[in-house]
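Researcher: We're teaching a course module on how sequence relates to structure. For the next exercise, students receive a sequence and then see the predicted structure as tokens, so they can try to spot secondary structure elements on their own. Here is the exercise chain.
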Amino acid sequence: MKNTHKSPITHFLADIAHEAGEEIMKKFHNVKQQRSKGDRGDIVTEADIASEKLILDRIKSEFPNDGIISEEAGQTIGNSGRFWLVDPLDGTRNFALGLPFFCISIALIENTKAIASVVYDPIHNEMFLAERGHGSKLNGNILKVVNNSEIDDAVISLSWLRRRVKRSQFIGYMNRIAKRTSYFRRLGSAALVCCYVAAGRIDAYMQGAINCWDIAAASLIVEEAGGLVTDFEGQPLDLSNPHTDILAANPALHARILREIVGKEQ
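Model: And here is the predicted structure for the students to work with:
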């Protein structure tokens, strides 16, 4: 079902995400500068910086009293009670390698919850938008998570950051999942993978120690598509926590993975 109506805030989000997408596409397959950040393998390119500058300039111009937390620039304090979580290029390593799976991710946070968000894939021109209480859409089409409640033969994305988690814990999850399905995916852009759960392309997504800016926008898109996004305790995400474990799926499959894979009773 198509619904192209946008509120002023989602219109703004779509506009700046599209502009940022055009900016980073100028540099795709043409990365001239990249440097490592804190963790080995965690890099930033001139595309990250250019996209971030464009997004932050637009937010500061339109909403000068709002705070901002952005992956590269850090935190700007506001006085409105709201703040923006920005990942100007989620999937930078894919981008630098020429792999066509990356996105721009922006969320507006109020009272610790995302109230509006966008995830934009400029390669496929796919714009995922959500506003709390008003559903989520992909290029104007209403999104709904799949209704699959079976772990057997489910398509599951499982990944972790090796310096932040116990590797044995995640190898344990993988071993339990592998007894039920061989359809693993590790795609390299947390926000886009989470949106694929919302779109019914992937059944479930498990990620260890993810950054809040990587998942804030996409978590709202999943929730507004009828899915659940929690930590591994089954608790709502704390977007003030810089590193958190997440599980995203439809409610029935989410409960089964928590119980049968993670080992948490609900």
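Model: If you want an answer key for the exercise: The CA atoms of residues 231 and 246 lie 4 Å apart. The mean pLDDT is 91.
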